[in-house]
Amino acid sequence: MSRSPRAALVCVGSELLAGQVNTHQAWLSLRLRGAGFDVVGESSVPDDAAAISAAIRRSLKAADAVLVCGGLGPTFDDLTREAAAAALGRTLRLDPGLWARIRARLRRDRACVPEENKRQAFVLSGAKVLSNPNGSAPGQMIAARGKTLALLPGPAPEMCPMFQRAVLPALRRRHALGIFPAAFTARLSGVPESVADERLAPVRARWPRARFTILTAGGEVSFHASLTTGSPAEARQARAAVRRDVLAAVGEFAHGEGEATLESALGARLKAKGLSLAVAESCTGGLLGERITAVAGSSDYFRGGVIAYANDVKVRRLGVPARLLARHGAVSEECARAMARGVRRAVGADLGLAVTGVAGPGGGTKTKPVGLVFVAAAGPGRKEAARRLEINGPREAVRQRAATAALRFAFDQV
Amino acid sequence: MSRSPRAALVCVGSELLAGQVNTHQAWLSLRLRGAGFDVVGESSVPDDAAAISAAIRRSLKAADAVLVCGGLGPTFDDLTREAAAAALGRTLRLDPGLWARIRARLRRDRACVPEENKRQAFVLSGAKVLSNPNGSAPGQMIAARGKTLALLPGPAPEMCPMFQRAVLPALRRRHALGIFPAAFTARLSGVPESVADERLAPVRARWPRARFTILTAGGEVSFHASLTTGSPAEARQARAAVRRDVLAAVGEFAHGEGEATLESALGARLKAKGLSLAVAESCTGGLLGERITAVAGSSDYFRGGVIAYANDVKVRRLGVPARLLARHGAVSEECARAMARGVRRAVGADLGLAVTGVAGPGGGTKTKPVGLVFVAAAGPGRKEAARRLEINGPREAVRQRAATAALRFAFDQV
Q: Which CATH number is A180-257 given?
C-alpha cells in the first residue's frame, strides 16, 4: 500500500475571520478524502496578499496538492492571483481571449462591463485556465515541482462544480496514480448520532486500516468509511465488504448511499411507485416544499402544497374543522392528520404530508413546549399515519429537524 | 489611534479535515472583532502534536492572542497540552488539586474514573487553569513575552461559555485597553456586488484607516466597515460618520443595518404598516415562505401561501385562468400577476407576492431560458406590479436569487 497523497486548503477572505462560516473546508475535505487524499491542514487568511502568499508557500511545503478558494473576484480586495504569483515566483499576464469571454458573459447581465473585471483575466504563467460557467471568476491550475496548486472562486455554486469537473480528476491523475480508494457513505435518518455510533463500533473494529467519520446535521447522520487499496479489484471488494458490514449494523436507518439526500431518496421512491405528493406546512413555513423541490426533476412527483401559517388558512384552505382546532389546538396529532388529508384533496395528490409544531422561541406552553412537532401522512383509501416528536434546540434546528422527520416519515410510508 | 491588537485561531481535530463544519472560527472571529481585535488568521490542524505545535508557534508570531480549540480531552489523540508545552518550551506538571476536582466531577456521572482522565490535570508551567462547568476538560491561559495563549475545549457548549466568561475579559484587559472599536454594516439587495463596490470606492478612499469587507450571498450584498478609536465618544462619532457616508453612496439599496436580514426588514415594514402577506410560489417551491418564517414572530404579518408547482394547482388553487396559462405560459409576467392576485384572495392577505420561473437545469427553451424569473405583487385596490429577472447560475442559485428578488420587490412595494 502506497503513502496517501497529501492535500492542504487555503481559504481566502476577511469575511472568514469576521463571522462568516467556512463551509468549503468541510465540503472539500470530505471529497479529497474520498479520493484517497490525506487532508493535512487548512488555513483561513484575510484579503491580504502577504498572508495569502505565506499560507500558499507553507501549504506547498506540507502537501502535494494545495487548493486555494476565494479572492478571484474583480474588486480591490481580491488578491489571490497576485499572492499566488508571488508565492511561486511567477508572473501574471493578461489573457486577451479570456478577457473577451469574461466581457461577453458580463454583457448578458448588464449594460456596461466595469473595467475592474479585467483583473479576472490575468493568468499565472504556465497555468491552465478553468472555465466558470456559473460566475465571472475563472479558476487556475498549475503544476510546479511535482506539486499542484489550484485557485478556485469563493462562492460555492462556482467553486463546487469547478472542483468536481476540472480539479479532482487532475489531482487524481497527478498524485493518486496507483492508489485506489475505496469509499462508502451511508446516509441515515430517524436515528440519533450516538445510537448510530454505538451500532457502528464493531464495524470500526473490524476495519483497523480504514478511516471513519460520523457527521450529523439537521437531524440526518452520515457515516463515511474510506481506505486505500492497491488495485481496482481490491477497491471494489473492500468497498462491497465495508458496505455490507455498515448496512448490517444500521441498514434500517439508511435512506441512501453516497451523495443521495433524503429528499432525492424520497423522490426516487415516489417516482418508482408512480405516486404524487403534496405538502401542508405550518411551523416549517415552506421548508418542506423547498427541500423537496431542491431536487431537479421533482415536478415528476411533487404537485405543490399549502403553507398554512395562520389557523384560519388551515380551516379555509385545508378544510381542517374549526371544532378540531378549538378542541385539540393547531399543534396536535389530530390537526396534522387533518392537514395531510386536506392538502391531499386540495392539491390533488396521492400522498399528503403535513407538519405542525412549535418552532419557538416564543409560543411554547407547559403542555405544548417549544420543539413539540407532529407529522402526518395521508394516502389513498383513508390510509393515514402520524408521529409525535420532541426536538431540542433553537428555532432553526427545530424547523430543519421537523422537515427531516417529515421527509423520513414519508419515505417510510411510500 | 492605537494599532488594533491581533488574534489568531488554531482549531484542532482530525474531524475538521474530514467533513465536519468548523463553526468555532466564525463564532470566535465575530466576537473578537467586536471587541476590537483584528483576527489575522485561522488554522485547522489534525490530531498531530507536531502540526498543532507548529501552528501555535506560527500564530504566536503573527498575533498578540492565540486561541486554541480542541484536543483537551482525555484520550490518546488529545495532544494540545503537549503541543503547547513544546511550542512555548515549557513543562507540563500534574496539578493534584485539579486532578481531585476532575475526579470528583466524573464520579457524579459514572462509577469509576478512567486513569486516562489524569492527562487532563496536566498544566503548563505558569498557566492559569480555566474551570469548565460543562465538561471534564479544563482550559488553560498563559501570558508569555507580552502574548497570550489560551487553550479551550472543543465542544461548543464547553468552549463558548469559557471564552465569554474567562478568556475575552482577560484579552481585553491585556491587549485592548484604551481601544474602542467602531463598526457599521450595511445590508444591500437589488444591486450587483460590483456596482455596490464601485459606488463605495470613494467611501473607502475617505476612510484610509478603516477596514472594509464586501460579501455577497444569494443575491444579497453586505458591506462591513470597522475601525478602532481612542475613546467611546470618538467611536460613536466615527460610526455615525461612516454610516452617513455609506448610506449616501448606496442608501437606496440598503434594506437594513447590522444583523438585519432582508426578511426581517420586510417583516418590520409590514408590521409597522399593519399589513399582512401571502406568497404564491412556483420555481422556489416554498423557499420564499421558508425565509419569511425564519424570522421569529413572523406570524404577526405572514398568513401563509400556496406552493403551486404543477400548473393545474395554479388554476385550481390560485384561480389563474387556464386560457392565460395556455396563451402566455406559466413562466410569464401575466401568470406571476395572476398568482399574486390569486393568493391574496385565497389566503386572505393585504399583499400577495408571487414567483414563477425556470430554475433549471432542465425546462429551459429559447424564449424562456433557465434563469428567467418573474416576480409580482398585488395589493389592495387592484394595485399591482411585476418584474422580470434573468438569473445566471445553477438551480440552487436561481432559486435563492429569485426569492431574494421577490423579498426585495415586496420591500419596495410596502
A: 3.30.70.2860
